[in-house]
Structure formats: C-alpha cells, structure tokens
Design brief:
heterodimer, A: seven-stranded mixed sheet, 10 strands, about 55% strand, globular, B: about 120 residues, mainly beta, six-stranded antiparallel sheet
Chain lengths: ~110, ~120
C-alpha cells in the first residue's frame, strides 16, 4: 500500500511570495498518477493538478505541478489571498490514497 | 455546469443505518465512475467507495468494507451510499465526487459536491 507524506505540515508565507509544497510517496507512483487538491475553510476540495503536471479546468497558471516516481511538488508562483488554504496530494496508481495535507497560512 | 448535490446526512445512533444520496447534473452521468470521499471533523480526506460507469464494479476502503454499499441509478442520475452498522468513527462530512476519465478503475476526482454531515455519537 502506497503511503503519501506531505511537507511541511504548515507553510507560513505572505501574499506575493512563492509556495513550494512537497508530496513524497513510499513507492514509485506509476505514470505520474498524482493529483493535488485545494480546500479552503468551510468549502469542498477542488482539483488543481492531475497527472502530476496537468492543470485542471479553470485553474490559474500560477499553480504548477512537477515530479515523478516518489517525489512531487506543487508550486504556487505568487500567493494570492484566496490561496491560503489546505492542500492535499492524492495518488491513483493502485488505489485512492490522500496525503495528510499542508496548510498554507498567512505570515 | 457540473453539479453534485448530496443529501441524507443526519445524526444516527451507533449501530444504525443511513442512506446518502447524490443528484448529478450537467454531464453525461453514465459515462463517469462516481465515488464517495469523507472527511472527519478537523481531519484529512479519506476515500470511501467507488462505482464503475455501469454499476457492475464497486470498490470499498477497508474500514467500510462489509457495512457500506454504493449503488447508482443512471435513469435518475443518482448515486447512493447505504451505510449500515454505523460507528462513531464514521462521523464525517461525506462528499460525492466524480472520477476523472483515466481509462482504468482508479483516478483523480474532478468535481466535488458540497458534502453532507453524518454524525454518530460515541
């Protein structure tokens, strides 16, 4: 069973700064079957990235995904006020497993 | 516009049963696999169950295997989650989600409903 680890647990940044979130898998994720989600307080999650690098419909280009194998990264190039939220990675190689999440909060 | 609207969440005593419903609209329902994902209060996301496009293949997470059952009615564009023998650890917001087209049983979730709360007191 693949286990996902996300780091850091909390990332404190200011609007306009760059955010780099990490998702590490206990086993290699085949064909980059890795997705990222954003969840704002009180809202349902929304898909940001799938296939490790493809942006979902309507997602701004300040969000980008990279990585392969066991190490994946979500980058937010310039934080907007609405980007302060929880972020989860999920693999879909052989099951549906979510990481524990990274909280991006305002410094 | 894709919409997923859950209903049926409630306060239920341990050992009780509940059926969640999800009304889907804005897309060709029979072309997409559907799933349920839950989130316990203050916790992360946990996949619960999935059903194939034609309803013949179902998957369950280990914690719910044997006491939850997923089904769909493509004539009504509805997905259901029958929850039996409920336990305190089943307390969560339950989201109805659409699985993106990956060409195999597993996938990412491209649309989410707003969720329905199930509470099972300890």
């Amino acid at each position: 069973e693949i286990v996902l680890t996300q780091s850091p647990g909390t990332l404190s940044l200011s609007p306009g700064e760059r955010a780099t979130l990490s998702c590490r898998s206990s086993q290699s994720v085949g064909s980059s079957y890795l997705a990222w989600y954003q969840q704002r307080p009180g809202q349902a999650p929304r898909l940001l990235i799938y296939g490790a690098t493809s942006r979902a419909t309507g997602i701004p280009d300040r969000f980008s995904g990279s990585g392969s194998g066991t190490d994946f990264t979500l980058t937010i190039s310039r934080l907007e006020p609405e980007d302060f939220a929880m972020y989860y990675c999920q693999h879909y190689d052989s099951s549906f497993t979510f990481g524990p999440g990274t909280k991006v909060d305002i410094k | 516009e894709v919409q997923l609207l859950e209903s049926g969440g409630d306060l239920v005593q341990p050992g009780g049963s509940l059926r969640l419903s999800c009304a889907a609209s804005g897309f060709t329902f029979r072309s997409y696999a559907m799933s349920w994902v839950r989130q316990a209060p203050g916790k992360g996301l946990e996949w619960v169950s999935s059903i194939s496009t034609d309803g013949t293949v179902t998957f369950y997470a280990d914690p719910v295997k044997g006491h939850f059952a997923i089904s769909r009615d493509s004539s009504k564009n509805m997905v259901y989650l029958q929850m039996n023998s409920l336990r305190a650890e089943d307390t969560a917001v339950y989201y109805c989600v659409r699985k993106g087209k990956t060409g195999f049983h597993y996938g990412y979730f491209d649309y989410w409903g707003q969720g329905t709360l199930v509470t099972v007191p300890s």
